[in-house]
Design goal:
This is HTH luxR-type domain-containing protein. By secondary structure, the protein is an all-alpha fold. Helix content is 76%, strand content 0%. The protein has 2 domains: 114 residues; 55 residues, Orthogonal Bundle (Arc Repressor Mutant, subunit A), CATH 1.10.10.
Length: 180
């Protein structure tokens, strides 16, 4: 654990430099991302006040626009920090927004658990790669030495498993769930 803390203490000056540059160039998304990484780093180093201060800066940038994904992408370490912040900052504004972020994360985790039960065959996974690459059914059929009808049937099965109706929805869901 000592080595981990040492690594995080070395990262903080670097993140602060990046934050200064992001502020100078008015890159709000980058600022939020860096602030969240700083907050997590401070919490790991057990510097709760600094973690909360930096987290509040990120929340001030994110809340007016309703950003959610940027918080969810940081995963459990940030959610744990948000929960600690809620407990420590009872009178602070932003409680509803932070509660919404935590609820969104928990809902996403339930969705992920529910989708783990989807089993794709080796051939379906192969077709999914080609679908993401933007190939037509005929192109997929030629590459995999299948008939176009067989490809169409596989794609229909994939759509059913994904609970989607078309290729665009399939690609979106595959990318969203990081299945490939």
């Amino acid at each position: 654990m000592l080595m981990v803390r040492q690594a995080f203490s070395e990262v903080i000056p670097w993140l602060n430099k990046l934050l200064s540059e992001a502020r100078r160039t008015d890159r709000i998304g980058s600022q939020m991302e860096i602030l969240l990484l700083l907050a997590i780093s401070y919490e790991i180093l057990r510097k709760d006040n600094q973690a909360y201060e930096v987290l509040e800066q990120a929340l001030e940038l994110a809340e007016p626009e309703g950003y959610i994904r940027i918080f969810l992408d940081e995963g459990q370490p940030l959610i744990r920090l948000l929960q600690h912040w809620l407990t420590a900052k009872r009178a602070a504004s932003g409680h509803d927004y932070v509660s919404q972020l935590i609820q969104s994360y928990q809902s996403e985790q339930i969705d992920n658990v529910n989708t783990i039960n989807i089993h794709f065959t080796k051939r379906e996974l192969e077709l999914m790669h080609h679908i993401i690459d933007g190939l037509s059914n005929d192109q997929i059929a030629r590459q995999l030495f299948l008939s176009p009808g067989t490809v169409k049937r596989y794609i229909h099965d994939i759509y059913q498993k994904l609970e989607v109706k078309n290729r665009v929805q399939a690609v979106s869901k595959i990318k969203e769930k990081h299945w490939l």
